[in-house]
Amino acid sequence: MIEISGLRKTYRSRRGSVVAVDGVDLAVGEGDVYGVLGRSGAGKSTLLRCVNMLERPDAGTVTVDGLELTGLRTRELRPARHRIGMIHQHFALLSSRTVAGNVAFALEVTGVPRAERKSRVAELLDLVGLTERADAYPAQLSGGQKQRVGIARAIAARPKVLLSDEATSALDPETTDSILRLLLDLNRRLGLTILLITHEMAVVKRICTSAAIMRDGRFAESGPVTELLQQPGSELARGLFPLEAPAEVPGATVVDVTVSGEEADAPLLAELARRFDIDVRILAGSVETLAATRAGRWRLALPGDADDNREALDYLRKRGARVGEPA
């Protein structure tokens, strides 16, 4: 749905040049929720703005739903952008318009007739849970309600892709959770492909099926979340499942084990202990839900050295677990 190849964007000033995005490749599949995680200044916002061509890249290509946007002239971009919705960190609502008026504005600019606008606005406000606030003004809304208006406006023209620019960073944790639930519901009900940027690992954990960590304009790692969890040394895995436990235990083999899917909730460690008649110590770890996928990561201590535990570790691998190098 979104394909980016060799994307590069440089900002120039009297003080010199700053490379904001440096040769990024990205593929977001249809129906994915893809999170780009990074600190302020990593290049996340510039990357997002290049997707809908609010920023023209210096090099590379951006293709959305089969249409290469980087090959379009300015006047051709306007109708192409209607296929891409965007929600903003600070809502960007029109203070002089009501909730319904803000949502209707997105339909006005695309030429939707008045009668059709009215029914579509009612449909959208019901979808985001704001029917009773249709006549309220932005100043009368909470932060979460304002963001719901922003989401309704962003999907008004029935885009296939939704971009989210730190949409929850200005909200409290409870409101953040409600907005993430809404985005996930829209993803599933409408088939929306969502590309979001965030500096919060909790956002990635809550709704993202794929993710990338961005640093200094480049991706340090990227891919499906369940695959990244299985990669040795993955920064994302450490962030989602921090294992704050000793890496060495006298007289034991210490090993990190990652599982996903059905095995995450299976009595895998109990079966391991029974099958090999060993005491399995869980030094750290947990089993959690990542988007719609169950995943678990543990640091285990097995009695004896690596040779003593070779068969036990092979058993875990046969059950689909990713087993790190024993310590």
From TrEMBL:
GO terms for biological process: amino acid transport. CDD domains: ABC_MetN_methionine_transporter. The keyword Translocase applies. One of its GO terms (molecular function) is ATP binding. InterPro entries: AAA+_ATPase (IPR003593), ABC_transporter-like_ATP-bd (IPR003439), ABC_transporter-like_CS (IPR017871), ACT-like_dom_sf (IPR045865), MetN_ABC (IPR041701), MetN_ABC_transporter-like (IPR050086), NIL_domain (IPR018449), P-loop_NTPase (IPR027417). It comes from the Bacteria. Keywords: Amino-acid transport, ATP-binding, Cell membrane, Membrane, Nucleotide-binding, Translocase, Transport. This is Methionine ABC transporter ATP-binding protein. It comes from Actinoplanes awajinensis subsp. mycoplanecinus.
